[in-house]
Specification:
5-stranded antiparallel beta sheet, mainly beta
């Protein structure tokens, strides 16, 4: 399967990227805010949900994601000083405040979040070419 290279400029595009990034593994040290560029970026090991897995546990791909037009970043429930800490991305959401401005929220397993105050929604997800066999297929308990 070819590498993904997705761009989201609205909430529908964000939902597509969020689905492809679900269950990505991210080191705390691999996230950062370039304030002078108004960009928040991260490198992740993305579980490739789009790949067929008839006899395997799937694959992971090295991927990059960046958000442009970022005015500020706030994290909750994440020790940003634990550079080797591992985060499991569950979803990316967007709440519009004063169109087109809003808050992008990256939600992680365990309750941690990163909130990005953005002038407008613009993010890109790009695979970087490297892929390998996953040790397991992510699964989640569904609560009532």
């Amino acid at each position: 399967m070819p590498d993904l290279n997705l761009l989201a400029l609205d909430e529908e595009g964000l939902k597509v990227i969020s689905a492809h990034a679900q269950d990505a593994i991210i080191r705390v040290a691999d996230m950062g805010f370039a304030k002078s560029d108004n960009r928040f970026a991260l490198i992740m090991n993305r579980f490739a949900w789009e790949e067929e897995k008839p006899h395997s546990k799937g694959i992971r791909r090295r991927s990059a994601m960046h958000f442009d037009h970022v005015k500020g970043v706030k994290s909750t429930g994440i020790d940003i000083n634990a550079r080797e800490g591992i985060l499991n991305l569950l979803m990316i959401g967007f709440e519009e405040e004063s169109a087109p401005e809003g808050i992008v929220t990256l939600s992680f397993a365990g309750g941690g979040t990163v909130e990005l105050k953005v002038e407008c929604l613009e993010l890109r997800l790009s695979d970087l070419g490297a892929s390998w066999a996953a040790k397991s297929t992510p699964s989640h308990k569904i609560s009532d």
